[in-house]
Amino acid sequence: MTQILTFLGKGGIGRTTVAIATAKQQASQGKRVLLASQGSGPELSLLLGLPTPPEPTDIAANLKVVQFNTPYLLEKAWEEVKKLEAQYLKTPFFKEVYGQELAVLPGMDAAFALNAVREYDRSGEYDVIVYDGTGDRETLRMLGIAEIGGWYLRRFKQVLEGSDIVRALSPFWQPMSGAVLNVDWSKTEFSSDRIDEFLNEGKSALSDATHIAGYLVSGDDAASLAVAKYRWGEAQQIGLTIGGILVNRGNGGAIGTEFDPLPVTTIPSKSGDDWQPLIDALPNFGSQIASAPKPMEVDRSAQSVRLFLPGFSKQDVKLIQSGPEVTVEAGEQRHNIYLPPALQGKPVKGAKFQNQYLTISF
């Protein structure tokens, strides 16, 4: 199984540098590594000292790099979409539209980056994928697409299924979404239930820390530490396990117990073209992830759910129950707890926020 690693922290703190060093470290251990970047700027190319193409390209032994380009990713599937549209709809409206034009729609960058990572993950060609996002908010939103998409789908399911336009377009939507997302809908009935199942597959993958995990990158100054802790809480909200914190350009000992129980690793700043000191200082990512606190635990015997929400206070957390699930809002993220059968249908009896944990009783 491929391991996906990503990094969160304040802008300018060195996330991209740490991502490159991590990719180099993993490749030096004999693992097949893909360094995938969402950024459209020249930073990655400058740090690597070579161009970053839109397709995976070898840059060293066991190491490939790719820089996602949303118009390029969409254009790859767009001609197939146009053919399907002409086949299934009487009034073609895509013929004069180019893939690059749809790339400006909100969320397209995140959707295509997520799908590209998913495809590279499923390819079996890589042992490790190091994902360097455009920023911490965007990275969390990208990884949380399945969580948020599932929430909206379940609430608007009846409206969508009863809509005339949805019924008219559904014969086209099935093959079109398959072409863009590389999803084979032909093996099962195409329905809102199947889409929900598809989104749940994404949430399950995210909840497996051995498959996908994040690390915080911070200095030892108050501002970057505050951002790192806030991102830690938001990551827990979407089900992303945080394995540790890397203190860049500072003293890890100055943090104290603020990030307990995360392991703290102090890393040096990169000097010139010499990556080795930074690579040598990086932690053993696998062992740290194994001991990381889980975002959520369900205790069936006690009829309770326990969520780890560092970086938030009681006033930051909002609790909503709707049918068989409970929604926890904190920061800019929404965590939808789809309750196990033993707890479904039971009202929330109480909620307690203590020592960074939210405990919900039924």
Automatic annotation (TrEMBL):
Q: Where is the ArsA HSP20-like domain?
A: 304-362
Q: Membrane-spanning regions, if any?
A: none
Which residues are in the ArsA/GET3 Anion-transporting ATPase-like domain? 3-249
Member of which family?
Belongs to the arsA ATPase family.
Entry's PANTHER family? OS02G0711200 PROTEIN, P-LOOP CONTAINING NUCLEOSIDE TRIPHOSPHATE HYDROLASES SUPERFAMILY PROTEIN
This chain belongs to the protein called ArsA family ATPase
Species of the source: Phormidium yuhuli AB48
